[in-house]
Specification:
Layout lengths: L6 H5 L2 E5 L6 E4 L5 H18 L5 E3 L8 E4 L4 H4 L14 E6 L2 E6 L4 H13 L3 E2 L5 E2 L5 E4 L3 E4 L16 H6 L19 E7 L6 E2 L2 E2 L7 E5 L6
Parallel strand pairs: 2-3, 2-4, 4-6
Antiparallel strand pairs: 1-9, 5-6, 5-10, 7-8, 11-14, 12-13
Helix pairs in contact: 2-4
């Protein structure tokens, strides 16, 4: 016998899809960044693999619908009661929040919304991307969400793993890596250019026999340039 779900808890739940059909649509800004557009396409593709329903993608020029997944810097956010300092998220931070009957995934325009979509797929739906060709995408006849209020910002500015398959742009983006070695295009939000690899702090360097020299214990720090899509 199933345990009854309390009415308050039931009201917080979102039924995204059941038996291959869905009442939801994906809403993007009227003028999306390349990564926001890609985020919508990735979400559409993976949700179809998970539950069999292909959600339409529309822009926020459409009136607010009854069931929406709202992506990015979107005119519908205020209408559903999501108010926050989007600039505080930076390029890569994001917020995933259920506002029944809607779901909002919003982040920095460069990569944040895209990372929010991948975090939603991975941490809330169980997707995994092990290599560029090996993944785990769950198959669910009924896709239902409980309450989510998940805000994240990466602790590290630069994220990279050193093996050949990590250079695949889709795999790197799905695992939220921004490596300068990966083939990350503008749809992935580009790369973080890290050059030169390190440089000394601009303080007087130590001297030895009247000549400047550097040693292993000298104060070094990373030098990140402006993010690049090159």
């Amino acid at each position: 016998m199933e345990t009854p779900v309390p009415m308050a808890a039931a009201a917080d739940r979102l039924l995204l899809a059941e038996r291959g059909t869905s009442d939801y649509r994906i809403v993007i800004p009227t003028d999306p960044s390349p990564s926001e557009r890609h985020a919508a396409q990735e979400l559409q593709s993976f949700l179809e693999q998970i539950c069999g329903a292909r959600l339409p993608i529309v822009t926020d020029q459409e009136p607010l619908g009854q069931h929406e997944i709202i992506l990015g810097h979107n005119a519908h956010l205020q209408a559903v009661g999501v108010e926050m300092d989007l600039a505080a998220l930076g390029d890569e931070g994001f917020l995933i929040r259920t506002v029944p009957p809607h779901l909002a995934i919003v982040g920095g325009r460069r990569r944040g919304t895209l990372y929010g979509v991948y975090a939603f797929l991975e941490e809330h739906l169980g997707c995994r991307w092990f290599t560029a060709t090996v993944n785990h995408i769950p198959r669910l006849p009924k896709l239902e969400l409980g309450a989510i209020d998940d805000r994240q910002q990466p602790a590290l500015e630069y994220r990279e793993v050193f093996f050949h398959q990590a250079r695949d742009g889709d795999w790197s983006a799905r695992n939220r890596l921004n490596s300068s070695l990966a083939h990350l295009g503008e749809q992935h939000g580009g790369q973080v250019a890290y050059h030169p690899f390190v440089r000394p702090k601009p303080t007087s360097p130590p001297t030895r026999n009247g000549s400047r020299w550097w040693m292993a214990s000298a104060p070094w720090w990373g030098a990140t340039g402006e993010p690049s899509s090159a």
